[in-house]
Write a structure and sequence with these properties.
407 residues, 13 helices, binds uridine-5'-diphosphate, binds magnesium ion
Length: 407
């Protein structure tokens, strides 16, 4: 591709151990995109594959001028791979899709047409999903329902990777951890207009799925964390339903964050109830005061995270560094279960050891809160995290090869 020529479309495909799929997928994408009649690039992001995926991609690059490859030195996950693809995509429009031939490139023109109806994001809906019923389709329906309730973005299929974006919109969205499942809700934070169309879906023919039932627990924690992020960063959502499959959302970044007020109010309430109760029952009084203190600490930490998030250039503090670098990018996954465990243990002890029970429950809430705080700080810094070493091969044969840090 000529460096001065503007690219209209970038197709971003994260791949992890998909050696048999990448070539036929590229051929299908090429056939479809050649008919669109605009310049395009296909960006495969090899997420540290251990099979021959990268070798096959390298071979393909020799004969395909519009194919670019980003290679992670180790497996960093689908979200990171997508984030890298979005970062280096040069097109005005971006399509993301899975690299296992389950999504169909034939849907690309439909997604783009919909995008041109003045949407920022068009999501694919795998209405006839070709995956196992109990382990995949049922959990997915439940998860989408909950995500819809929590985030206010009621699309049917958050987990479908086949989506179309305006580049300037998706490039602003902070992606981290496994938040690719929350892209639609994330984009509402910057006021995106979202639509949904039905897309085809095929059973996997080659290779194996990279996820099992374990994702259910992770998605639950993600939903909790995301609720906090949305409530902190975005103001009330207005959804304007035109038909069941076409919806517009315009959440705006909340200019006045009132986390300190909420903290002060909730902790004060607990302190007042606690002091009123102090003569009646010491235990109830103590637990209210303990909760009050927990809320103050969580509120101050969260307020700190938000003030960091609002600055454009951030010198990461030692605390932020801890959360961003030491927690495998998902603080809630570390602190959440530990906090929940302490809380439940406290509940169990309520009849025998009241003092210990109070201590454990307050500790549990505090630790869980720290996880949420960490989550906010990682979200806020998602675009700035110095993360994975990547090798980038842009412009086909020209082999512009760089090793860079992602984000
Ligand atoms: N993938 C990835 N990194 C990972 C896991 C998955 O890049 O750590 C890619 C994978 O190669 C595929 C896409 O993400 O292109 C979706 O993964 P998969 O098909 O396993 O998910 P499923 O369709 O089973 O939900
Ligand atoms: Mg798949």
């Amino acid at each position: 591709m000529n460096a001065t020529q503007k690219t209209y479309l970038s197709i971003v495909v994260p791949v992890y151990n998909e050696e048999e799929n990448v070539r036929p997928l590229y051929e299908k994408i090429r056939k479809v995109c050649d008919t669109i009649g605009s310049t395009y690039e296909v960006l495969f992001v090899d997420d540290g594959s251990q099979d021959k995926t990268f070798d096959v991609l390298s071979e393909m690059r020799d004969t395909s001028p519009n194919l670019s490859v980003i290679r992670f030195q180790e497996n960093a996950g689908q979200t990171a791979a997508m984030a890298a693809g979005f970062k280096y995509a040069r097109g005005e429009r971006i399509i993301s899709m899975d690299g296992d031939l389950q999504n169909d490139p034939a849907d690309i023109p439909h997604l783009l047409d919909k995008l041109e109806e003045d949407y920022d994001l068009v999501c694919g809906w795998r209405k006839e999903r070709q995956d196992k019923f109990w382990s995949r389709r049922v959990p997915s329906v439940v998860a989408n329902w909950i995500i819809g309730k929590v985030t206010g973005v009621t699309i049917h299929d958050n987990g479908c990777s086949l989506k179309a974006y305006r580049a300037e919109v998706i490039k602003q969205v902070p992606l981290y951890g496994e938040m690719h499942r929350f892209i639609p809700a994330m984009t509402t934070v910057i006021g995106a207009r979202i639509a949904e169309i039905v897309v085809k879906h095929h059973p996997r023919r080659f290779g194996t799925s990279k996820y099992g039932l374990g994702r259910i627990w992770r998605v639950i924690l993600d939903i909790l964390a995301f609720k906090l992020i949305l409530s902190v960063f975005a103001s009330k959502s207005n959804s304007d339903n035109t038909t069941s499959t076409h919806q517009t959302y315009r959440n705006q970044l909340n200019p006045k964050l009132n986390v300190y007020r909420i903290t002060a109010f909730s902790s004060l309430t607990f302190f007042i109830i606690g002091s009123l109760l102090i003569n009646a029952t010491n235990i109830a009084a103590l637990s209210c005061i303990g909760l009050g203190i927990s809320f103050i600490i969580i509120g101050l930490l969260t307020g700190f995270a938000i003030s960091l998030a609002q600055r454009d250039t951030v010198e990461l503090s030692a605390l932020a560094r801890f959360f961003v670098f030491r927690c495998d990018k998902r603080p809630i996954r570390y602190f959440g279960p530990f906090g929940a465990f302490l809380f439940i243990l406290g509940l169990i002890l309520i009849f025998g050891f009241l003092d210990l029970c109070i201590l454990l429950m307050c500790g549990g809430i505090l630790i869980f809160g720290c996880g949420l705080f960490g989550e906010t700080i990682v979200y806020a810094n998602a675009k700035r995290v110095i993360d994975y070493k990547v090798e980038i091969f842009l412009d086909g044969k020209k082999d512009v090869k760089r090793t860079e840090n992602l984000y």
